[in-house]
Amino acid sequence: MIRLAVVFAFVLAMAPAVAVHASSFAGTSAGAGSASSGATSGSTSGNDKVVLQAREDAAGFVASDGRIRGARLEAALRALREDSAQARSASDMELARAILAR
């Protein structure tokens, strides 16, 4: 649960514009400050869009217990892992659930 919260915090920090919409990856802003120092790119808006577009695929992935893997989800998982060591250590299911929590 804590590991998932760290991944959520990372995505929240990675997508400040998305954070305005309800809750983002972390569900709260707690821990986002420490995660924001881990962002490597000055511009992540392209990755933000990829992650947001993956919500439907993430829902299918979670609902099917990982059996349904859409192309948008795969792209989002790649983008998240390229930008963060925390995301690289998270499972696909943890990241998919985090995408849905946005």
Automatic annotation (TrEMBL):
Signal peptide: 1-19
Keywords: Signal
Residue ranges of the region described as Disordered: 27-48
Pfam (any one): DUF2388
Listed Low complexity bias regions: 27-46
Protein name, UniProt field: DUF2388 domain-containing protein
Species of origin: Luteimonas granuli
